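Subgroup meeting minutes
Present: P.N., E.W., G.H.
Scribe: E.W.

1. P.N. recapped why we're keeping a running log of single-chain structure predictions: easier to compare across weeks, and new members can see raw inputs and outputs side by side.
2. G.H. added today's entry (566 aa).
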Amino acid sequence: MQLAVKSGQFENELTSDRRDLGQDPERALGRVVSCDGSRATIASTVSGMTRLGPDSWAVGRMISINLGSSRIVGLVYEMHAVNPVWDEAADNIVHVQVEMLGEVTESPEGRVRFQSGITTYPPIGSIAHRIRTGDLALVHDLGSRNGVAVGTLTQDSSIPATISIDDMLARHFALLGTTGVGKSSAVALLLRRAIAARSRLRVLILDPHNEYAGAFPDRALSIDAEGLDLPFWMFRLEEFGEIVFRGRAAFEEEADILREVVATARERYRGASQRNPMRDLNSSLLKRPLDAGIARREDGMGSATDMPTPYRIVDALAIIDELIGLHEMRWPRAALRSLKVRLETLHSDPRYQFMFARANMMETMAPVLAQIFRVPHHGRPITVFQLGGLPSEVVDAVASVLARLAFDLAMASQGTYEILLLCEEAHRYVPADQSLGFLPTRQAIARIAKEGRKYGAYLGVVTQRPGELDPTILSQCSTIFAMRLANEHDQQIIRAAISDASASTLKFLSSVGNREAIAFGEGVATTMRMRFADLAPHELPAMDIAIGVEGRREPGLEEMVRRMRG
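Output recorded in log:
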């Protein structure tokens, strides 16, 4: 195929197309030779001996096509030489494939604006340019929305990459990327920008690797297993059962016994049965499980009597003993004794002291909520909840409690407290496989994703394996920061979940650099390839692990064993 423009004529026309003679004559790159509804092909020539500069044709860069009264903005996603043999002594014709994103228009008064979509398509022969800096900034301008800079554009580092914090939070967001690409530092940056822009915002980070404790030294409270107070009575029956039975399927009899024992222990704590304990046993414990007043709540999040009211483990154990001593056996003694052993073992295990040690010193949820959700925050609106120090069998239940409380507190505050729940390694809590994970945790997080916006409860999802994340949760996140993803299945999941992401843009997911991301959705003006800003060394996650290892004292074996035992 031959390019029907002579070199001299082409150069004269490109020079006359410049807005002023001070512009670089090399800004013009080629001409449109084909066009369909969304893409165009541009033909250009490259001298065989030319040393290509950074502003030459490059995949991932934006260009503009001049139509006189407007300029079409396009994204280069593919390029190839027409002749497969490169000629060092002559000009070589190249074809560049461009996806058309929108157009820049100028009003008679001189107002310039960018709009997505194409109203006028380029005719054959239209001239393609390197995009003007002003046009590139205009493409990513948020307009009347408040914008916060979180980095710079990859194509032009002089242009800030801005996002709308309001839209990013209100409609939830996700940050996806493989290990080692800078997800954690990007999360830390976004959270710092969010709390600076929203004074009422509280952030709760579910941190499974204990890496955020040092990322917010001036703005966060870090809670580990030793400093945590989460009384066992705040767990709903399903959540408490997950801990009691250690994630294994319990015998149906034991689960039913636990249900009645907990309900009766709550009644006894309130004093309803203190005058006549045996009458209470006869009136409530001897009933059938389905007749014990356990009614399902309308929201599907537990039972009407399964509310977080205090009770004592000693009362629960006493009730089991009383059941064992009844002449008319309601339950097999083996099942009763097995449940009692489980509760006693749990209560005496030092790893679970966060649930039992100070549980009955608190008769309300207020001190727990004040600590976890920073009410008042005293200048530290972020809570880093270190799940890494908890027993593995309790993590899902704790995550369920925290997600549920986040939604309930936001709803009870009627929007005066805005709460962002950030889930690191989110595929652990809401996996794509419905048979995996813990159902109450999935329900609590899904409730925030679906209904939280109405009450000021927001969700942030961070994962390195979006293919293992429930696509329903991902589809609720309207702003996506996609960092490098090498796995093809993960890339397909994003394409399927995000309807407005262009296929050509997502082709770059396997090759973006560290701390780079492709951002799209409600929180940005248009699909944007960006690089997150640098953080100060003391603001980086995992700083306590990243430095200081050389000079640390090596702990003794006994000390490490004590840590392992909690």
